[in-house]
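Progress note, sequence design subtask.
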C-alpha cells in the first residue's frame, strides 16, 4: 500500500538550505521565467513552447492530486523560488514513480540546491509515500544532472540510443532508478 493521502496533502519538506513546498500558481512569475530559460530548455529537451495561460493552468491544478507530487524548491533563508521537483506517474500496484527536477537557470546551478532537493524528495517518496522504485531519464549530454542523480543513489539501468533530436543532432537518453533498498548516500 502506498500513502495517497501523503501525495494529496504534500507536507512541506524541510532541508538544510532548501524547503520543498506544494507547487501552485503563487510561483507563476518565477516559473514562467524558468520555462523560457534557454539552458533549462536545452537540458530538459523541451520542444513545447508554453503560453502563460498553460503555465497558470498547470500550476493552479497541482494541489490535491493523488497520483503525483509537484514541489516548489525554495531557498530556506528567504523562500525564493529556485525551481521544481516532481514525483510523477505513480503506479500504486508496483509502488513505483518517476522523477524530474529543474532549477530556474544557470545563476542557481552548482550550489548544491539540486542535490538537496533530490534527496528530500527521495526520502519523501520512500519513507512517507511508501514507494519501492523511483526512475528517471536524463540526457547523456547533461553531466551535472547525471552526477547529482548518482550522488543521490540512482543507478544507471540502460540507454535509449538517439532518442532525442536536438539542434540538428541525435542524443542518447540514459535511464536511471533507485530502489527503497538501495543505499541512499
Ligand atoms: C540538474 C540540476 C537539478 C542539478 O542541480 P544543481 O544544484 O545545479 O547541482 P548541485 O550543485 O547539487 O551538484 C552538481 C554536481 O555536479 C557536478 N558537476 C557540475 N558540472 C559537471 C560536469 N560538467 N561534469 C561532471 N560533474 C559536474 C558538481 O561538481 C556537483 O557534484 P559534486 O558535489 O560531487 O562536486 C540543475 O543543474 C538543473 O536544474 N539543471 C537544468 C535542468 C536539468 O538539467 N534538469 C535535469 C533534467 S534530467
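Output:
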Amino acid at each position: 500500500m502506498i500513502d495517497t493521502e501523503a501525495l494529496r496533502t504534500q507536507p512541506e519538506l524541510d532541508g538544510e538550505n532548501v524547503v520543498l513546498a506544494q507547487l501552485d500558481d503563487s510561483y507563476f512569475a518565477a516559473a514562467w521565467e524558468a520555462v523560457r530559460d534557454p539552458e533549462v530548455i536545452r537540458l530538459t529537451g523541451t520542444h513545447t513552447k508554453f503560453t502563460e495561460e498553460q503555465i497558470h493552468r498547470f500550476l493552479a491544478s497541482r494541489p490535491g492530486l493523488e497520483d503525483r507530487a509537484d514541489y516548489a524548491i525554495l531557498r530556506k533563508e528567504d523562500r525564493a523560488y529556485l525551481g521544481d521537483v516532481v514525483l510523477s506517474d505513480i503506479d500504486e500496484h508496483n509502488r513505483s514513480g518517476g522523477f524530474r527536477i529543474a532549477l530556474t537557470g544557470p545563476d542557481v546551478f552548482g550550489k548544491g540546491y539540486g542535490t538537496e532537493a533530490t534527496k528530500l524528495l527521495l526520502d519523501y517518496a520512500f519513507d512517507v509515500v511508501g514507494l519501492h522504485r523511483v526512475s528517471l531519464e536524463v540526457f547523456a549530454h547533461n553531466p551535472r544532472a547525471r552526477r547529482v542523480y548518482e550522488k543521490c543513489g540512482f543507478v544507471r539501468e540502460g540507454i535509449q540510443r538517439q532518442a532525442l533530436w536536438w539542434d540538428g543532432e541525435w542524443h542518447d537518453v540514459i535511464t536511471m532508478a533507485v530502489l527503497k533498498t538501495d543505499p541512499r548516500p
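The mean pLDDT is 97. Work on this subtask will continue into the next period as scheduled.
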